[in-house]
Amino acid sequence: MTQPTSDAGSTLPRRQLGRYLLEWRTRAGYTQTKAAQLLEMGASSLGRLEKGENSRIKTRDIQAVSDLYGVPEDLTAALVGLAKQANVKNWWHQYGDLIPKDFDVYVGLEAAAFKIITYQPDLVPGLLQIADYDRSLVSQIWPADSPEEWERRVQLKMQRQRIVTRKTQPVTLDVVVGEAALRRVAGSSAIMTTQLRHLADRSTEDNVELRVLPSAAGFPGGISMPPFVVLQYGESAPGEPVEPPVVFLEGIVGNMYIEDADDVASFLRSYDRLRNASLDCSDSRQLLRQIAREYESGH
Question: Model-level pTM greater than 0.85?
Answer without folding.
Answer: no
